[in-house]
Amino acid sequence: MRKLSLLDRLIITVDQGINTVFTRRAGQDYDSPNVTLPVNLTAPERELSVRLMRVNHAGEVAAQALYRGHALTAHMPAVRAHMERAADEENDHLAWCASRIHELGGHTSLLNPLWYAGSLAIGALAGKAGDKWSLGFVAETEHQVVAHLDEHIARLPEGDAPSRVILEKMRADEARHAKVAIKAGAAPLPGPVKKLMGLVSRIMTRTAYWI
């Protein structure tokens, strides 16, 4: 097998982006024997669940792009493999959120292509800065995502058990990804960088909530 050039990896990344944004994927089953589709959600509750799950789906689109961007410019093959493996593991999250939005009669964010393109660029820039900073970026992103998921789990309507199962499984995976990145040599990010990441995240989540 020949060694892939940067151009090869770029073409693959573009193809992955198209699939992420425009293809509905099948993920591993998130249901449990005790979870059934709710029949008692009011219209406002259903709309709230749709909006929250749309935000989480948009976040998973961005996560895919971040990991792919990190992999595109990673310096060490081991770090590149780590990023690609993490992106593959996030595919289930993407599929779960999309399926749940569909079940609730909603739609995913119309700005998903923008979230993907912007996150891919951010990930690639972080990767160029060096592998330890790239891993640090991943760890901090996952920490912020865990906090965000905690908030959404608390906000979900009480009767929406399927969405809660999805978010709780996602939370466990994201926390594990952060630990793996730290173990792989992540460098702690400066405070201003963390604040900027939080600001960008809030802009995306607040916009995806409505669009």
Detail the poorly predicted runs. 32-36
Mean pLDDT: 82
Order of secondary-structure elements: HHHHHHH
Number of helices: 7
Shape: globular
Query: Nearest-angstrom radius of gyration?
Result: 17 Å
Report the helical percentage.
Answer: over 70%
Using DSSP, what is the number of strands? 0
What structural class do you assign from the helix and strand content?
mainly alpha
The major beta sheet can be summarized as: none
Strand residue content? under 5%
Distance, first to last CA: 43 Å
Question: Which helices and strands occur, and which strands form pairs?
Answer:
Elements: H1 6-22, H2 43-73, H3 77-103, H4 112-129, H5 131-155, H6 161-183, H7 191-210
Helix pairs in contact: 1-2, 2-3, 2-4, 2-5, 2-7, 3-6, 4-5, 5-6
What is this structure, in a nutshell?
Helices cover about 75% and strands about 0% of the residues. By secondary structure, it is mainly α. It starts with 5 loop residues before the first helix and ends with a helix.
